[in-house]
Amino acid sequence: xxxxxxxxxxxxxxxxxxxxxxxxxxxxxxxxxxxxxxxxxxxxxxxxxxxxxxxxxxxxxxxxxxxxxxxxxxxxxx
Length: 78
Description:
By secondary structure, the protein is mainly α. It has helices at 10-23, 27-54, 57-64.
């Protein structure tokens, strides 16, 4: 495991401390989770962008043409 020294504005440090206490975790755990969530979101964007490059309008329309033209079930309606 690595150690990282980060400088935070006092107001952010205070807020993170309060939030970590409210969650019942250490500041280290709270910050680690926050970074994990951000990295996960960025990786997901990268993945979706790569998948989008492999798609084509023609393939999409071919699949869509196979969808039956019926009303959705009551529980599935918007």
